[in-house]
Design the sequence.
């Protein structure tokens, strides 16, 4: 296995290149397809071009590694080391001109996301974590990230991307219980809400209906900043689905309790 | 009366200075007060320092003009020309580290917002409109703004800051009717959603519980880009309250119809 530094050099150069592609499509007229059946799930040229760029760069540097992403079939998906990517997390924000989307990338080793990145090219913010420390490379240089010390729901700011992500009335009721107990509950954010949790500005993120590539890249960033990320049952959210991320173990425990009391 | 250019020079220098103050507080630990009774309405040192800066600069340049803002008592509020300001529109986004907040400023002449500005200092984006044309001064220089040509709810992307802003079940039901008919409905955005409407990326904004300083600065920007802004009854939203902004007159008419069918 290469060193973390070698992985970072390749991954971050690939993300910055892919970010330039993203910006060339951002706030431009988009060709939006509907890949769902009835559901609105935009897929853009940008999505495909970004993922193509990431796959080409990572595949060339690490030919034995797997490549799994949203837009193309798996390559070497059973390899011990797999690059998992979501070319634009927050496509709906992207198509609305809002800058709260990001390019997500994880290096998954034997099923565990060891390294994770979020790159937001419009603001040139690159978030990185390895599960033990996290940092933001941005306009202010390199800045370590630390989640807040918030321990109680009553003191917490909770984010969730959209009420529509809660797929059942029971899920929605569980979210509403959390929101009702928090100091402030807001929608919007996609991956960016987890980054702000790692940075200490958001205390809790509660979501559902996530794909693995939506959450695995965020896990090493949130955990590296001292936060906790699990599914609603308290297990590692390796399959996506229902996710709760919290700034502290105590807050996480309170959130799980509130979710569990109403979850199906 | 001074020329638009003279107003712009003073106003935009004042906004950029105030934006630096905002950034010095952004993503820093905040002293948040609760000025509501039970409601969560953060007021920060940043809010006060920004408005103080704007008042000082505008008051010095235009001593006969009125000054009205969120944080301090009116000064010469009955003057023919009044500067109306909201130091941080989107304080909840601001305190969550999210960049979708802005400094709002309008020059109101005889009750009508003739010039309007939104400044987002983290992204260094200054939106300006005079009701006839609108522009964005940003990293790409000066760029004219034009709303989209979307004419049908079924093709529209609708934004609203938060479901909690709909104060009654009837208001909420009216919003839900709109959202159900749109191609995409999202929460979040505050002033930024109106800016993205002016820029052609969002088609509709439907909100309630706005103060005059929340909406009057946005009116010349949206109208200058070809959009339409009224209250839910189709009148100029000079008192705030319920607001609907649309990219085209046809879309606005469809939205009013949908809102009116359910509004109390």
Sequence:
């Amino acid at each position: 296995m290469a060193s973390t530094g070698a992985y970072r050099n390749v991954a971050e150069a690939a993300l910055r290149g892919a970010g330039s592609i993203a910006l060339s499509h951002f706030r431009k007229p988009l060709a939006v397809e509907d890949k769902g059946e009835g559901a609105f799930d935009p897929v853009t040229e940008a999505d495909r071009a970004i993922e193509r760029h990431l796959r080409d760069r990572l595949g060339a540097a690490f030919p034995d590694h797997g490549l799994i992403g949203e837009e193309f079939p798996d390559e070497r998906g059973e390899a011990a080391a797999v690059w998992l990517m979501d070319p634009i997390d927050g496509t709906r924000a992207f198509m609305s001109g809002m800058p709260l989307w990001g390019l997500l990338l994880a290096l998954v080793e034997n099923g565990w996301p060891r390294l994770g990145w979020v790159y937001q090219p419009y603001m040139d913010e690159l978030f990185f974590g390895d599960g033990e420390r996290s940092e933001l490379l941005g306009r202010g240089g390199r800045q370590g990230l630390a989640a807040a010390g918030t321990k109680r729901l009553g003191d917490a700011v909770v984010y969730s991307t959209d009420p529509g992500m809660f797929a059942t009335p029971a899920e929605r009721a569980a979210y509403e219980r959390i929101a009702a107990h928090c100091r402030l509950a807001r929608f919007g954010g996609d991956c960016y809400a987890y980054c702000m949790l790692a940075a200490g500005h958001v205390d809790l993120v509660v979501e559902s209906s996530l794909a693995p590539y939506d959450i695995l890249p965020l896990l090493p960033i949130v955990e590296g900043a001292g936060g906790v990320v699990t599914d609603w049952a308290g297990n590692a959210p390796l399959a996506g689905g229902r996710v709760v991320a919290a700034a502290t173990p105590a807050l996480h425990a309170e959130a799980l309790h509130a979710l569990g009391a109403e979850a199906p």
